[in-house]
Fold this sequence. Notes:
Blueprint: E1 9-13, H1 19-32, E2 37-41, H2 50-58, E3 63-66, H3 79-99, E4 104-108, H4 110-115, H5 121-130, E5 136-140, H6 146-151, E6 154-157
Parallel strand pairs: 1-5, 1-6, 2-3, 2-4, 4-5
Amino acid sequence: MREEVKGLTVIFTGNGKGKTSAALGAVMRALGHGWKCKVIQFIKANRETGEILLLKKLAPELGIEQFGMGFTWLKDHSPEEHREAAQAGFNAALADIRSGKYGLMVLDEILYALGKGLVSLADVQEAIRQKPSHMHLILTGRGAPQELIEMADMVTSMEPVKHPMEKGIPAQRGLDF
């Protein structure tokens, strides 16, 4: 029996941790099957987490691009700088989607960028509509709007139950990043 690929649109959202980790787990699975994958990060700036470092070692052909300038609440950059960086990331993502050369693409923290007004809902909807039929597209970030939830094939909401930050314990290298 021939395997039929039906490219899905997947959203990992919610206020809990693990959205990016879940998306990168899917990337590892796809790479294991010999797929070509691309990850575009919209908020993280020059920050290589443990999973990104490992993926770069194991799969140097994996495309990973960071267009973010860090979280907007850090106030290190102006709102306009954040918007320009997010728009550059979106333009790159749309070009990669249209190219059809990837089996899986991750738009990491695009929902955060959308929530902060750095990219438009109409643009994200258009990216989903232009996704080739063979491509799986994963969008991550808090606050997925209902319009995108309705367009998606699968939506998982990560919700916090208990977290060490509540006790003042900061994120831990090797576990959280």
